[in-house]
Design brief:
By secondary structure, the chain is of the alpha+beta class. It has one domain (5-105): HIT family, subunit A. Helices cover 31% and strands 22% of the residues. The protein is built from four helices and five strands. A five-stranded antiparallel sheet has the order 1-2-3-5-4, covered by helices on one side. The longest helix is centred in the middle third of the chain and has 17 residues, at 58-74. It is globular and about 35 Å long. The relative contact order is 0.21. Bound molecules: adenosine monophosphate.
């Protein structure tokens, strides 16, 4: 998926401010942060969204959230807490068609979202 911006970040073709990486996942700082800490955690493998990932490789989603927890702790977001967001499709506000989990923290996160 050479036209996918997050595939290109995963391959190193596009630079990103990385916070964590392993063979399967990558976490990097959002280019347009909405909180003092705003990271995106992605699988290197391309899935359009969480629905596709759950269908094709459900166990990967559990590992993805293990990385979310690890990254949140490493960023000092515990025990105060943080917000995870996984926008899916147009009504979910998804703008990049590669599965990603937003990790937002460092301030109180209001509810409900707009
Ligand atoms: P979503 O709207 O849920 O699909 O989120 C996509 C996120 O990716 C947005 O918060 C963007 O600011 C972020 N984003 C887009 N391009 C880049 C990039 N090259 N590096 C870091 N974050 C990006």
């Amino acid at each position: 998926m050479t036209d996918c911006v997050f595939c290109r970040i995963a391959s190193g073709e596009i630079p990103a401010k990385k916070a964590y990486e392993d063979e399967e996942f990558l976490a990097f700082h959002d280019i347009n942060p909405q909180a003092p800490v705003h990271l995106l955690v992605i699988p290197r493998r391309h899935f359009n969204d969480v629905v596709q990932a759950v269908k094709e490789q459900p166990e990967l989603v559990a590992r993805l959230f293990a990385v979310v927890s690890k990254v949140a702790a490493a960023q000092g977001l515990l025990p105060e807490g943080f917000r995870t967001v996984c926008n899916t499709g147009p009504n979910g506000g998804q703008t990049v068609g590669h599965l990603h989990v937003h990790v937002l923290g460092g301030r109180f996160m209001g509810w409900p979202p707009g």
